[in-house]
Write a structure and sequence with these properties.
By secondary structure, the chain is mainly α. Helix content is 74%, strand content 0%.
Length: 152
């Protein structure tokens, strides 16, 4: 153990847990990325089966310029294929950024358009924050990005 008062092992209330935290950090981050990606895939699966299905929803949001069908298909592709990319850790940053944008739109939809406030937008806020984390951080060593040796 270091004598440095700022060293993380000296700040733990239960110091012997330091190695546990250190050894599980990558696993926890990988688990969060995989679960978040698979949740997006699950949420996007019905949409990808009918990519123009969300046209009514997109129109209600007032997405212009461009036809609502374009935005509906983009939503479907982002949720389904973006979720796969995030889960496996390939092109993680751009996929997470795109998903974050989608989730911020859902925050607006629930909070403002539907008037549900924080309670209605809470899940979208949490998911957007998770996507923000991976858009900034990228994937870790347990990812396709890391195995390719190239990242965005």
């Amino acid at each position: 153990m270091s004598n440095d008062p700022i060293h993380p092992s000296n700040r733990l209330i239960i110091p012997f847990l330091g190695p546990v935290y250190g050894s599980l950090g990558d696993f926890a981050e990988t688990l969060l990325r995989v679960v978040a990606g698979l949740a997006l895939v699950t949420h996007g699966f019905p949409k990808i089966m009918n990519p123009t299905g969300p046209v009514g929803l997109v129109e209600s949001l007032g997405f212009f310029p461009g036809p609502a069908v374009f935005w509906a298909v983009l939503l479907s592709v982002t949720e389904f294929f973006g979720g796969i990319l995030i889960a496996i850790g390939l092109w993680t940053r751009p996929a997470a950024f795109a998903a974050m944008i989608v989730l911020l739109v859902t925050v607006y939809f629930h909070w403002v358009l539907r008037g549900e406030g924080f309670g209605g937008a809470e899940k979208s806020i949490l998911w957007a924050a998770i996507m923000f984390y991976f858009a900034i951080r990228g994937a870790n060593r347990h990812s396709v990005d890391a195995h390719l040796g190239k990242v965005f």
